Amino acid sequence: MAEAESHTRRRDCPRTLTTRIAPDFLATFERFQETYRIYAVDPSGQLYQKDEHYIDEWDDTKKQQVIEILNYYIDRGGVVVAIQNDKTLLGFAGLDGHLLGTDDQYLNLGFIHVSLPFRGQGIGMGLFERVCQAAIERSAKKLYIGANPAVDTYHFYKVMGCIVAEEIVPEVYEAEALDLQLEYVIPSPETAS
After folding, report:
1. What is the Cβ-side half-sphere exposure of residue 156, based on CA atoms within 13 angstroms?
2. Sequential pLDDT tens for the chain (193 residues)
3. What is d(CA 119, CA 7) in angstroms, rounded to the nearest whole number?
4. Do residues 12 and 83 lie in contact, with contact meaning Cβ atoms separated by under 8 Å?
5. What three-state secondary structure class fits 3?
């Protein structure tokens, strides 16, 4: 029994992928988010909530676009972190390998998603922690995140310790101007104990 539980845990551990991912990587992934309230940033830099309704759902065409972006990240020295159980993709994150910011302090966390049936199980936290390790290995001091402005998405990032970005990275901001521009200061290995 303990051996079976241990085996299950190992399958659910984050895997770091550094070679191009296959076209069927997202075949089992269910991206769906219905949003009613979002956060926005006022001219003074303060967050506030407002009503806005939209649905974010990926069809096969969108999944292929995401895979292309993830492979672009890998080609630039980044990683994809995946948590799978057997052949089912529970969650994934994509970290671009190109340093950004005026002091090359950022790596862009372009994606972090948990498949709809598996949310609320700590998978996002596991992905985020492994992405931070990969960012340290690539000399980043901070993660830069263009985050979906949905209230629940922001709350995840807030729990992880993210704050409104001190610097706006134009190439991320211009891709999705309505996204919240956040950052996460990665604890150095010496202070992370």
Report:
1. 22
2. 333 333 333 346 899 999 999 999 999 999 999 999 999 999 888 999 999 999 999 999 999 999 999 999 999 999 999 999 988 999 999 999 999 999 999 999 999 999 999 999 999 999 999 999 999 999 999 999 999 999 999 999 999 999 999 999 999 999 998 999 999 999 976 655 4
3. 21
4. yes
5. helix
Token duo for residue 165: 């970005």
Query: Shortest CA distance to 140 belongs to which of 96, 173, 110?
Result: 96
DSSP assignment letter at 38 = E
Rg (CA), the chain: 17
Residue type, 14: P
The verdict on pTM exceeding 0.70 is: yes
Token reading at 89? 């993709």
